[in-house]
Structure formats: C-alpha cells, structure tokens
Amino acid sequence: MCARYHYTEKCTEILLRKLGLSVPEYQNGDVTPGMSPVVIGNYNGKLSATNMHWGMKGKNGSLIINARSESALQKPMFSSAIESRRVLIPTDKFYEWDSDRNKVTFSVNDSDIIFLAGIYNITDNKMSFAILTTAANSSMSPVHDRMPLMISDSDISDWIFDFGKANALLHKGMPALKAERQYEQLSLFDA
C-alpha cells in the first residue's frame, strides 16, 4: 500500500530537465490522499504534467487510493483506466509503516526521482488517480507485503502511450530500495 509520499522543488527541476515538461506549481513536502499533486500523463497526444486529485471515488463513495496491478485489468473500476488513462506520479521518496508502527522512508539508490505508476478516472468533473501496487520485493518485504509499482525513466513513454508495453510493465520486477527508519515507536509497557 502507498498512502504517503514526498514531492520537492527538485522533482519539478528534474521533470523540466529530463522530460522538458512545464510543471504546474505545487507545494513541497508530504503528499497524502485528498491532495492534488503533480502527475504526468498523455494529454492531447503528448506528455504533459498537471495537478490531479489523489483518490478515485469508489462505488460506495469511499476514497480508493491504491489498486493492485496484478488484478486491475479484471476489475471494472480500473480496467478501462489501465487501457487508456495511465499516469506517473513523480516523487523522491515514499513512506510505509512497519508492524510496530515505525515510519520507514524508501528511496531508490542513485536516483533523484521515482515514477510511481498510476491510473485515473474522471468523476464529479475532476480527474482522480490511484497508485498501482505490486507484491513487495526483498528490500520492501521486511516492512510491508505491497509496494508501489515503479516505472523506470526508460519506460516512461511505453507506460503512458503504449497499452501493450504498459501491460508488460505491470509484471516487471521492482528495483532495490533504500530503507531508512527515522525513529522507533516506544512502548510504555513491557511485552
């Protein structure tokens, strides 16, 4: 599951330098569901950046922030989005909490930016996205059994513009992650 990530001005600079994108303004810091961060997608046939609401509206009105990449094509809510409305969510790091509720920060070694795979729908006249997740690799599994699906720089166009290649990327292995614990939860009671 991915429920919080981080975005900085450095992400904006990298998007401009690497992809030549004009990036809308967005605040630096942690991004949580319900916010409208920067996403990259196919807008009028070209790669563009825009702000989009994080959280797709579920059948019962609930906020859907993640979708399993392995089964998204079989789910009516996600299947058409996988086929034609794929986005990338730029970040420099994301967070997960372990079973003891310790916050763990994840980044990719030797990379200033990570592209998380996402899909979007249009509901209530706004574009809303969910982050795709996959089974955790060995660098993530000590903390959580799921992790965000990440797309490498070289696969950006394939993910955004080519459904056949994007479908293959749904099953691609994930890179090794660097995990940092900033603090550990303390208990007032002995176990």
Describe the structure.
With 191 residues, the chain is α+β, with helices and mostly antiparallel strands. 17% of the residues lie in helices and 39% in strands. The protein has four helices and 16 strands. Strands 3, 4, 5, 8, 9, 12, 13, 14 and 15 form a nine-stranded mixed beta sheet that branches. A five-stranded antiparallel beta sheet has the order 2-1-10-11-16. It has a two-stranded antiparallel ribbon with strand order 6-7. Strand 12 and strand 13 form a beta hairpin. The chain is globular, with a radius of gyration of 16 Å. The model has no long low-confidence stretch (mean pLDDT 92).
What tags apply to this protein structure?
191 residues; alpha+beta; nine-stranded mixed β-sheet; 4 helices; globular
**Strand and helix order:** EHEEEEEEEHEEEEEEEHHE
Number of strands: 16
* pLDDT < 50 runs, ≥5 residues: none
Overall mean pLDDT score?
A: 92
Rg result: 16 Å
Largest sheet: 9 strands, mixed
| Structural class determined from secondary elements | alpha+beta
Net shape: globular
Number of helices: 4
Portion in strands: 35-45%
Give the fraction of residues assigned to helices. 10-25%
N- to C-terminal distance: 28 Å
Helices and strands, with pairings:
Elements: E1 5-7, H1 9-19, E2 29-31, E3 38-43, E4 46-51, E5 53-54, E6 56-57, E7 63-64, E8 66-68, H2 76-84, E9 86-91, E10 93-97, E11 103-108, E12 114-123, E13 126-135, E14 146-148, E15 150-151, H3 156-161, H4 163-169, E16 177-181
Parallel strand pairs: 5-13, 8-13
Antiparallel strand pairs: 1-2, 1-10, 3-4, 3-9, 6-7, 9-12, 10-11, 11-16, 12-13, 12-15, 13-14
